[in-house]
Amino acid sequence: MRTLTYFVATSLDGFIADPKGGFGDFLFEGDHMTALIEEYPDTLPVQMREAMGIDAPNRTFDTIFMGRATYQVPGGRPSPYPHLRQFVASSRLSTTPDDVEVVADPLAKVRELKAESGLGIWLCGGGRLAAALLPEIDELVLKIHPIVLGKGIPLFAGDFPTARFAKASTRTFDTGVVFTTYAKADTA
């Protein structure tokens, strides 16, 4: 069975973006970026992959699940991850001008995808979608940036059940960014 991983950058105070959905305050240079590029090339959008000459095969993920606001990031381009099977959860969109499939029931779709064979499923954002999919999230990979935003889009937003995770690993970089991985805790 495939896993759903919420792989996301967050501030120290738990925000994945500023109130308008921007993430320009996060760090995009330094040793954590080198690790990201080397270890998770599948998480780079097509414009970064093209600019860096990255044509590596997917290592971790072959599918991406994102919320409408993540998909429609200002200045974004259609089909931001053509090297992945792309899904966008939305009740506002009915179609997209590219190869991104719109999903009205994200929980049902993720359960269907997890039953298929393949690499992992990357939950890219946002906070409301993460809350809705929390029962199916198997792993959190938090790229914690040394910044306090004070307000913005929270890591999880809305009503959701309590879920326990166990720390699997932590890596600290010279930039101050910390990658921490948590696996869903056994609740049995």
What distinguishing features does this structure have?
two-stranded antiparallel sheet; 30% strand; globular; 10 strands; 188 residues; alpha/beta; eight-stranded mixed sheet; 5 helices; single chain; Dihydrofolate Reductase, subunit A
What characterizes the major β-sheet?
8 strands, mixed
Low-confidence stretches are none
Structural class: alpha/beta
Q: How many individual domains?
A: 1
**Could you name the CATH homologous superfamily?**
Dihydrofolate Reductase, subunit A
What strand line-up does the widest sheet have?
5-4-3-6-1-7-10-9
CATH class: Alpha Beta
Q: Alpha-carbon distance between the termini? A: 19 Å
> How do the SSEs run, as a string of H and E?
EEHHEHEEHEHEEEE
Number of discrete helical segments: 5
- Principal-axis shape equals globular
What amount of the residues lies in strands?
A: 25-35%
CATH topology value: Dihydrofolate Reductase, subunit A
Task: Please name the CATH architecture.
Answer: 3-Layer(aba) Sandwich
The Rg value, from CA coordinates, equals 16 Å
Helical content band: 10-25%
Number of DSSP strand runs: 10
Oligomer: single chain
Protein described:
Helices cover 20% and strands 30% of the residues. The protein is α/β, with parallel strands linked by helices. It has one domain (4-184): Dihydrofolate Reductase, subunit A (3-Layer(aba) Sandwich). It has an eight-stranded mixed sheet. The protein has a two-stranded antiparallel ribbon with strand order 2-8. Strand 9 (165-172) and strand 10 (178-184) form a beta hairpin. It is globular, with a radius of gyration of 16 Å. The relative contact order is 0.25. The mean pLDDT is 92.
